[in-house]
Write a structure and sequence with these properties.
single chain; alpha/beta; Rossmann fold; Alpha-Beta Plaits; seven-stranded mixed beta sheet; 34% helix; disordered N terminus
Length: 335
């Protein structure tokens, strides 16, 4: 189903949905956000990762006008956060860590209540509720209380309630926490469909696979600072350990390749060489050109790169020496 949206000519619509510069928040002596910068392109999924207490939820609360920052310049949907908060609220929807569903109302009644709060009018509110119940596969449970819903159904209802006002920017704060794998995958498809409709999604999550699957760009938050930012693949290349695995069927070709390639480890039993690489097309091309120059043919080639778990542990390790191999000091931005 296609949702019709009203086009507004703003800086946020044209390029960036969210921009933040020097965003800071402290509670007494405890600094939660220490001058972070964010830039979220419109119509994308931007994920904020970090350990517990890193400031992810605080960032969402500030960007969604729930709390005020101590310092910093922020624009959301093209509107200045501190000077035009009401206009920002008209552009956004927020789904927190815990479902904000009224347990005393049916699924349909929850949606109609949200429609009333958005002043949609009786007929339009019921039409919008029916549309969202169908979109989120909740029509059969529309007359039931949330107590009869599964965790995944309650989460879908929660997001549907957030979408009643047709927001252009959606904040999802750990939306799949506690869901089983099937429900989590269903939620991922919902996010993809929203982005396909032009919605910008700002996602915080504890599931690194979730960020890997959904995010166009990821920022890693640690100690109140953004310590790295880039696409999932770019971030993976920050962590040492990537390599190309070359397997040979011919022992002679294997020995010749071992002699031609300087930096590598070898497994003589499996006729396999492991060549350090960041997995980039440039390095793969250079490796293949080297083999072609020596008229050496490998039976198979496999690229192995660190995953987001490796990135997360390396960038958020409380022991600085454990991250000594990373090519970033204060912040690494990959473009």
């Amino acid at each position: 189903m296609t949702t019709t949206r009203t086009t507004t000519t703003t800086a946020g619509q044209a390029g960036r949905a969210i921009t933040a510069s020097g965003l800071r928040k402290a509670y007494g002596d405890h600094v939660v956000l220490d001058g972070i910068d964010l830039a979220v392109p419109a119509g994308t999924v931007f994920s904020l990762l970090g350990p517990n207490g890193a400031g992810k939820t605080t960032a969402v609360q500030i960007l969604s006008t729930l709390i005020e920052a101590d310092a910093g310049e922020v624009r959301v949907g093209g509107h200045h956060l501190s000077r035009d908060a009401e206009a920002v609220r008209g552009q956004i929807g927020v789904t927190g860590q815990f479902a904000a569903v009224d347990a005393m109302l049916t699924g349909e009644e929850n949606l109609v209540l949200m429609a009333d709060l958005h002043h949609l009018g009786r007929r339009e509110g019921r039409r919008r509720a029916a549309e969202l119940l169908e979109r989120f596969e909740l029509t059969g449970a529309a007359k039931k209380l949330p107590a009869a819903y599964s965790g995944g159904m309650r989460r879908r209802l929660d997001i549907a309630m957030t979408l009643v006002g047709d927001p252009r920017i959606l904040f999802l704060d750990e939306p799949t926490t506690g869901l089983d794998p099937r429900s989590r995958h269903s939620m991922w498809q919902i996010v993809r469909d929203l982005v396909a409709d032009g919605v910008t999604v700002f996602l915080t999550t504890q599931y690194l696979e979730e960020a890997d699957q959904l995010a166009d760009r990821i920022a890693v938050l640690n100690g109140g600072k953004v310590v790295a930012e880039g696409t999932p693949d770019e971030l993976k290349r920050l962590v040492p350990g990537g390599h190309v695995r070359l397997r040979f069927a011919d022992p002679v070709a294997y020995q010749r390749a071992a002699a031609a390639l300087r930096e590598m480890s070898r497994d003589d039993t499996a006729l396999t060489l492991h060549v350090p690489s960041d997995g980039s097309s440039r390095e793969l091309r250079a490796l293949l050109d080297r083999l072609d120059a020596e008229s050496i043919e490998a039976e198979s080639l496999t690229v192995h790169t660190p995953d987001l778990d490796d990135v997360f542990f390396a960038l958020t390790n409380p022991n600085p020496s454990a991250s000594a191999g990373l090519p970033n000091s204060r912040k690494e931005t990959v473009r």
